[in-house]
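Moderator note: this is an archived Q&A kept for reference. The question asked for a predicted structure of one protein chain; the sequence and the answer are reproduced below.
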Amino acid sequence: MSKPTTNRTKIYTYADYLTWDDSERWELIDGVPYLMAGPTPEHQKILGELFFHLRQHLRDRSCTPYMAPLDLTFEKDELTMTVVQPDVFVMCGEYGHDKGIVGVPVLVIEIISPSTATNDTIRKLNLYQQVGVQEYWIVEPATQIVHVYLRNGSDLRWTREYHPGNMLSPSMFPELMIPISTVFE
């Protein structure tokens, strides 16, 4: 198994990514590799809480939530230059199951840390906007805030922030009410 070089001028594909050492987690955005730090216990607790609410609500429906680590590509082609591992994402309708999931999620959730903040708030926001994600949540454990971005035409636009005491509902599943206080307990 190999791993990418730190030379930012080399462009990689999903085929390259599949040869990298499994002991490290990487994402590939527009051909550029980004090493992912291991999650903290707090991160995993938040991830589990959000996934639990989505899984319980979507059981026996045509949408399925997934959680990291699971590869997500937006096209079924090993020459694609983008593969990400969102913390939580929801797929609806028909989509591919290959080495990971292939398609465009309706909802993506990223739990940021100091080491992932730039990727999650800039690179991934732009990526998810470009591929057509309908809703994007950025969860900030340090401030206990969830930022919600909703699709408006071709853009993902910041809509609102949620704090403990608020109830959060995905726009596609308005009957699902997630108490923000339980997310950050």
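Archived answer notes: The chain has four helices and 13 strands.
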